[in-house]
Write a structure and sequence with these properties.
- Residues 97-292 form the Metallo-beta-lactamase domain.
- This is MBL fold metallo-hydrolase.
- The strands form three sheets. The chain has an eight-stranded mixed beta sheet with strand order 1-10-11-12-13-14-15-16, with helices on one face.
- By secondary structure, it is of the alpha/beta class.
- The longest helix is centred in the N-terminal third of the chain and has 11 residues, at 40-50.
- The chain has a domain at 111-121 and 133-322: 4-Layer Sandwich (Metallo-beta-lactamase, Chain A), CATH 3.60.15.10.
- It is globular, with a radius of gyration of 18 Å.
- It has helices at residues 40-50, 65-75, 146-150, 167-172, 238-246, 262-265, 272-281, 304-311, and strands at 4-6, 18-19, 22-23, 80-83, 89-93, 96-100, 133-135, 159-163, 177-181, 185-189, 192-197, 217-222, 225-229, 249-255, 284-290, 317-319, 326-328.
- Helix 7 crosses helix 8.
Length: 330
């Protein structure tokens, strides 16, 4: 049985975010969610016409498979981090390997013949990785990829950590050790500490299950290194509280894409500048941009998130990674 405890001073111990069988985002967002308004109609029309249209990206945006495999192997046994596109990272600490939000299939969709298509191939596949722990921030198709997860051979030895009400789907895939957590709960596994934390987002894989499962961000602390994985989120004042209760952090993995038009998506997807605010609010020394340049879900140009992220002022160091790149963790 996993030893899950509330973080001291848990502001959501009263389960404010639980609401009649569904969940809601924390207070403190400066934006209104208008995904269900008429403002969404032009976005849907644009995506229907050109959502899966290929885009020209620079060669350095994605490594070849041979180079990605070479870099992954060459880093061992040095602690390292690899980006596989979207919010999928493979983090190798000393004695622990963590995979976040696997999305490695051709579509962010319930079927592989329709829906948002991955526009940049991943040079690394699930079979190239050996995770001990998989963290899944929520159940959207570009974060919880059942096709990739089914391809894992040894499901019995892997621990999956995810927010509440997401575990049933993962158990159906054959995973035996699935740990569901609420906001501001903490899990200690040997020398490793995991914390499930709030995020401004939503959940759902069908028309009828919106917000039936929880979404969240996560803190991972192992071997003296503390990483914040934001999952998918808009910006709000809750990040300042996350910083006060759980920070500071060595590295923050922050979402910088899928933000336009702001009149529709601002409440659930941070802009590049807001992603920097998230990192600063939680006290991160280093920021790595994610959730961009992989699949077209909104209307901004595909390479714009990285350009704005790198150009914005920041007290923290910030960088982007190539898809398939592996670099030293510290």
């Amino acid at each position: 049985m996993a030893d899950i405890t509330d973080i001291s001073g848990n502001p959501f111990a009263d389960l404010w975010h639980h609401q009649n069988g569904r969940f809601r985002s924390p207070p403190g967002s400066p934006w209104i969610d208008r995904r269900h308004s008429t403002k969404m109609l032009p976005v849907l029309a644009q995506l229907a016409v050109s959502g899966n249209k290929p885009f020209d990206y620079p060669k350095e945006h994605c490594l070849s498979r041979d180079l990605a495999l070479q870099k992954l192997a060459s880093m061992a046994p040095t602690p390292s981090i690899s980006w596989l596109g979207q919010a999928c990272f493979y983090i190798q600490f000393k004695g622990l390997r963590v995979l976040t939000d696997p999305f490695l299939s051709q579509r962010a969709s319930p079927v592989q013949f329709s829906g948002p298509r991955r526009l940049v191939e991943t040079p690394l596949q699930i079979s190239d990785l050996s995770p001990d722990v998989i963290i899944i921030s929520h159940n959207h198709y570009d974060h919880l990829d059942t096709h990739a997860l089914k391809a894992i051979d040894d499901k019995a030895s892997i621990t999956l950590i995810t927010p509440l009400k997401t575990g049933a789907l993962l158990r159906k895939l054959g995973f035996e050790r699935v740990i569901e957590m609420d906001w501001y709960q903490e899990l200690k596994e040997g020398e490793t500490r995991y914390q499930c934390l709030p995020a401004y987002h939503f959940s759902g894989r069908r028309l009828t299950d919106e917000n039936r499962s929880l979404w969240g961000s996560f803190a991972i602390e192992h071997d003296g290194v503390k990483i914040f994985f934001a999952g998918d989120t808009g910006y709000g004042s809750e990040f300042s509280r996350i910083g006060r209760l759980t920070g500071p952090y060595d590295i923050a993995l922050v979402p910088i894409g899928a933000y336009a038009p702001r009149s529709v998506f601002a409440a659930v997807h941070a802009s590049p500048e807001e992603a920097i605010k998230i990192g600063e609010d939680i006290g991160a020394k280093q920021l790595i941009g994610m959730h961009w340049g992989t699949v077209r879900l909104t209307s901004e140009p595909m390479m714009e998130p990285s350009e704005r992220f790198l150009a914005a002022q920041s007290r923290a160091q910030k960088s982007i990674m190539a898809i398939g790149e592996t670099r030293a963790l510290y």
